[in-house]
Amino acid sequence: MTDVIKTADRDGVRVITIDNAPVNAISAAVRTGLQAAIKAAEADPKVKAIVLTGAGRAFIAGADIREFGKPPAVGVPNLRENIAALEACTKPVVAAINGAAAGGGLEIALGCHYRVAHPKAVLGLPEVNLGTIPGATGTQRLPRAVGVEAALEMIVNGVLIPAAKCPPGLADELAEDVVGKAVALALSKPVRRLSEDDSKLAAAKAKPGLFDEYRKGMARRFRGFTAPYKCVEAVELCVKYGYAEGIAKEREIFLWCQEQPEARGMRHVFFSEREVARVPSIPKEVKPREIRSAGVIGCGTMGGGIAMNFANAGIPVTVIENDAAALEKGLGLIRKNYAGTVERGRMTQDAMDKRMALIKGSTSYDDLKTPDIVIEAVFENLDLKKQIFGRLDKVAKPGAVLATNTSTLDVDAIAAATSRPQDVVGTHFFSPANVMKLLENVRGARTSDETAQTAMELARRINKVGVMVGVCDGFVGNRMLYAYSRQASFLVEEGAAPEQVDKAIYDFGFPMGPFQMSDLAGLDVGYMVRKERKERAPTNLRYANTVADRLYEMGRYGQKTGKGWYLYDAQRNRSADPAVAALIEQVAKEQGRARRAIANDEIVERCMYALVNEGAQLLDEGIAARPLDIDMIWIFGYGFPRYRGGPIFWADEVGLPRILDRLNHYRQHHDRDWLEPAPLLARLAREGRTFKSWTAER
Ligand code: T1G
């Protein structure tokens, strides 16, 4: 018995319980305690069999990820030794899987002779989501339990599957009382060792091209990732080698993956996704208000998508439009969206009907008297939004959270249009709002802790990654986007073709480049934002985004008009347009600029270093509280490649002195105004520090 390992005997069966809250990660203490408990049970003549289970909501969540990247503890058994000891037992060993069995947790269960699982327990080897492969025999044991093809699917996709839906061979029995069932099974079954059973490998051995075929199907989904391919390479070992050689080679691949930037980036994302929900400026004890019902003002593309989030989460929502025609159009769009999902087999008709039943349309603000939260989602105009909040202030119940979906406008100015600015917050959704994972919550100067906490709770309730930021023009996401897309526009004026810039950014890992993205979002949207901003804060000429403005004035709004930066055919396939190239030449001539050949490296550096630089400025101003907030915003809202960990994490990987040096280089040669290094970045670079060490010292 140790702090993290509890044992008890039941009908002659030694029940070993791993108790390392919150999810029984396999820390050094767990490995030590487990090894001792197995040895003791094996040696104790009173013990006829062994059952292994977990305390709390998980069975075992895998190796302790916090130990990764650190030197291994000396004199402590490693996980493979634990697994070998379990399998070698001469007494039957049964895993009683009470909850999540993930990574090393499932590898341990596969080391046991049998597995009993709770139907709702999730099982899987999700190491690929940490930029690595299962490293404790999982790539050799899982194929032996469920066959090679099912194992490939589970390991390459890193999915956790409820036991009731797992491939046959993984769980021997399903039961509510897993320990009870496991004890009975352990007393009735002989020892059985998976490592000695190759029967399920035969099918794959008979299909020589299986792995190459599988790799071909991965290109689109895993573009830029390495670990998924390493997973295939490891599983393939089980048809090429025997078990012992297979696990030795698995280990080599695992250790290689652990040293890669992808693994560091993905680990950072794993912990940041959890940490981002804890906002430093909100005291832990502050509880969110209840969200039992909602209202949405405006049923356009954004309003409709926002309403769907509430319905998807089972929360009744009222959508308001100015008139019946607009309302019917908006509700029609929602219905069409759901019908599309049903058609693609991703939702049942019954589920669609239930969600539509939760969405009520209205043209009267009186229907906003009861909702716990109301989100305004009308087009970007400050005066209109102030007017709406003035009206809302008169009807919404006391304590209701009044939220605005603005993507750039001043939340404080909107809040000032009410008598209760403490209840006003920004909830910036990303289009399509029912799909995009990010919710950028914006805390105004007078937003209360409780209102802010409720906005974060909203994100959790509608299954979004919520990030809290402060008020400034464009908040965090869009302000950084301006800096990045501005460089992209300059690069086009200076000599690069839009398609060259897009390709370079696509190859860097984004799903698409800035010009394809603005054609998707609509050049009219960008033009309105720039127009609104120019009226409020006139800027220098170069900021004018001249080419984009001209395209707008030519009625080229992007995909929606079949023309933008690109030409689009009826299937929305895009192609470069010589008319755009000619327009760019003309603008450059008007600006007296000689265009030059531009290398892809310069494109990536100027665009991505501008992004990082603006991020550093936002951290310095406190608009973004932590680097992880920025990383989560850019990964879940703007498609920054996940395997790079996010722009700020990536900047530390590149090295701040290099970024400073390149910013100064480009400033000198091409861009005096807009690439001035942020003081924080310059200081950290000069002092040989990183954003990570800066965060740790705060
Ligand atoms: N190590 C360390 N901490 C962990 C952890 C782990 N494996 N899993 C979770 N935590 C922390 C998490 O950060 C959070 O902390 C708290 O536990 C609750 O987590 C050799 C190499 C199991 C499905 O990838 O997917 O084994 O934020 O909020 O929603 O082959 O946690 O409270 O401070 O997610 O109930 C492989 C990772 C490891 C599974 C439970 N395992 N975990 O979900 O809780 S690598 C994984 C999960 C490995 C071997 C290899 C989920 C869960 P905090 P939570 P949950």
Topology:
Layout (H helix, E strand, L loop, with lengths): L4 E6 L2 E6 L9 H16 L5 E6 L3 E3 L18 H10 L4 E5 L2 E3 L1 H8 L2 E4 L4 E3 L13 H9 L1 H10 L3 E2 L10 E2 L3 H9 L15 H4 L4 H7 L10 H14 L2 H16 L2 H15 L18 E4 L3 H12 L4 E4 L3 H20 L5 H9 L1 E4 L10 E4 L5 H14 L5 E4 L6 H5 L8 E6 L8 E5 L6 H13 L3 E5 L7 H18 L3 H11 L5 H8 L1 H14 L9 H8 L12 E3 L5 E3 L1 H13 L9 H22 L5 H11 L9 H8 L1 H14 L9 H8 L4 H7 L1
Parallel strand pairs: 2-3, 3-5, 4-6, 5-7, 6-8, 7-10, 11-12, 11-14, 12-13, 14-15, 15-16, 17-18
Antiparallel strand pairs: 1-2, 8-9, 16-17, 19-20
Helix pairs in contact: 1-2, 2-3, 3-4, 4-5, 4-9, 5-9, 9-10, 11-25, 12-13, 18-24, 19-24, 22-23, 24-27, 27-28
The site of (2S,3S)-3-hydroxy-2-methylbutanoyl-COA (T1G) has 28 residues, from strand 6, helix 3 and helix 11.
Explained architecture:
With 698 residues, this protein is of the alpha/beta class. Helices cover 48% and strands 12% of the residues. The protein is built from 29 helices and 20 strands. Strands 13-12-11-14-15-16-17-18 form an 8-stranded mixed sheet, sandwiched between helices. Strands 1-2-3-5-7-10 form a 6-stranded mixed sheet, sandwiched between helices. A 4-stranded mixed sheet has the order 4-6-8-9. Helix 2 (79-88) runs parallel beside helix 3. It is globular, with a radius of gyration of 28 Å. The two termini are 40 Å apart. The model has no long low-confidence stretch (mean pLDDT 95). The chain binds (2S,3S)-3-hydroxy-2-methylbutanoyl-COA. (2S,3S)-3-hydroxy-2-methylbutanoyl-COA binds next to strand 6, helix 3 and helix 11.
